[in-house]
Amino acid sequence: MAKDWAKLGGDRGKPVKTSTLGRAIKLGGLATRISGSFLKKQIQRIGSEANEFETIADAAKDNVRQMVEVMGEMKGAAMKIGQLLSTDPDIVDSGFAERLATLQRNAPPMDYVTLSTQFEDAIGLPISEVFSYFNPEPIGSASIGQVHRATLHDGQDVAVKVQYPGIAQSIDSDMNHLGRMLRLGRVFMSKERADAFVEEARQTIMAESDYRQEAANLTQFSTLFAHWEDVRIPKPVMEYCRKTVLVMEFIDGTPFDDAVLAIEDVDERNAVCTRFIEIFVHMVHDINLLHADPHPGNFFLDEQRNIVLLDFGCIRAMDVELADGLLRMLRCLWNDDMDTLVQYYRDFKFGREGMEFPDNQVMREYHQIILHPMIHKGPVNFGTFDLHGPVREFLAKNGSLLKMVPPAELLLYFRVLAGLKGMMTRTGGEVNIRALAEQVCERRGI
Q: What pLDDT shows up at residue 415?
């Protein structure tokens, strides 16, 4: 029966490289190619007015196709880095982000032989003994595993996530090579930010690599959001959940950004976007648990326009004092109290100990740019909100701001904010972020 399913699906997948040496050669070759392209562009621009940053950017764009191909083939850390880079159009060039975004939904799946072996090794039963139907064509291919639709013998429709082989064993080696690639001449970002990205991806993949924990997270969040009638979270089928296999309730829907863009009524579209942001405000400040992987493939709208939350592999607890402190920092901005704001930055250990922060006027202007949606009174249209250009121009004149590196405890939080901002940018949502912030401040007594 399993062979029939594989033939029906056409088996378009590829084997996943699992050997440390094979992965090192592949990723090392990609880094070398990008470095070579940078040198070539630099030579071509000798005598011109173009600066080094533009040379690097052009070299990276020349290699984006191969980067996407290699990251998708490698899975694991490589693919996670690509997904993280693509979630916020303000981090990298928009055209670059669009190509990397294919890693969120269209990454090449593993072949059926590998898939069935992974499943049967984990469960101890052939696929045909667990399911009356199993679609060999994946409905999603992510960085850690791929998802298939199936039906249990009792008739329940389920989604089956099967982990790629060798992911956990390859993390450290992959990270070393990816860190080198990202740091090459600051292809994407500063060394500090590249290092933060690599460490964040490492932590994320480690958290996601045990599907038994994700099953527990699904159960916990289903309970926490039970009273939210317009939010749906799939329930796991614990009988068939293992470290590398997760079986859960199947919920049909359309990817969030596509579904929102298809809503013709502007007010209704904005209401859905507002509700989506409310969910994350609730997570951070009310229950202090954060869904820390906000890329578009993890969120859907069903036919009734309920918001479907998927992929709970990476959940981070938020310290209550830290979460409340972030709200107090917003209060400082609303009250134009820069001295107290800077003290919070020191207390939360932004930058190096004892460093001198920019003067109040620079801090004021910088936050007006980067936190405009949280400061502005009234709705902000994220489709027209340009952050990349103004930030780049401001940092070029005020480089000391780059030293305000966030503490490790906040890296994922800021990554989530960037991912949410990216989703709102793609949907063109208009949301009154300040009103939501003021409401949660009132709930928290801040």
A: 78
* 410 inside domain: yes
Number of domains in the chain: 2
The low-confidence residues of the chain, meaning pLDDT below 50, are 1-13, 15-16, 18-25, 27-28, 30-32, 34-57, 59, 61, 63-64, 68, 72, 76, 86-97, 100, 102-105, 185-189
Kindly state whether residue 247 falls inside one of the protein's structural domains.
no
Question: Does residue 333 belong to any structural domain of this protein?
Answer: yes
**Model pTM?**
0.75
First to last CA, the chain: 61
**pLDDT tens digits, residue range 154-172?**
999 999 999 988 776 666 6
- HEC per residue, the chain: CHHHHHHHHCCCCECCCCCHHHHHHHHHHHHHHHHHHHHHHHHHCCCCCCCHHHHHHHHHHHCHHHHHHHHHHHCHHHHHHHHHHHCCCCCCCHHHHHHHCHHHHCCCCECHHHHHHHHHHHHCCCHHHHEEEECCCCCEECCCEEEEEEEECCCCEEEEEEECCCHHHHHHHHHHHHHHHHHHHHCCCCHHHHHHHHHHHHHHHHHHCCHHHHHHHHHHHHHHCCCCCCEECCCECHHHCCCCEEEEECCCCEEHHHHHHCCCCHHHHHHHHHHHHHHHHHHHHHHCEEECCCCHHHEEECCCCCEEECCCCCEEECCHHHHHHHHHHHHHHHCCCHHHHHHHHHHCCCCCCCCCCCCHHHHHHHHHHHCHHHHCCCCEECCCCCCHHHHHHHHHHCHHHHHCCCCHHHHHHHHHHHHHHHHHHHHCCEECHHHHHHHHHHHHCC
CB atoms within 10 A of CB 114: 18
Q: Which of 257, 293, 311, 324 is labelled catalytic?
A: 293
Residues 176 and 319 in one domain: no
The boundaries of the domain holding residue 185 are 2-109+166-208
Q: Are 340 and 199 members of one domain?
A: no
Q: Same domain for 196 and 332?
A: no
Q: Is 293 a catalytic residue?
A: yes
Show which of 146, 174, 208 is a domain's final residue. 208
For residues 211 and 245, is the Cβ–Cβ distance under 8 A?
Answer: yes
236: Cα separation from own chain's centroid:
22
Check if the beta carbon of residue 57 is closer than 8 Å to that of residue 93.
yes
Instruction: Give which of 239, 240, 210, 412 is closest to 312, Cα–Cα.
Output: 210
Q: Angle at the Cα of 438 (from 337 to 225), degrees rounded to 5?
A: 135
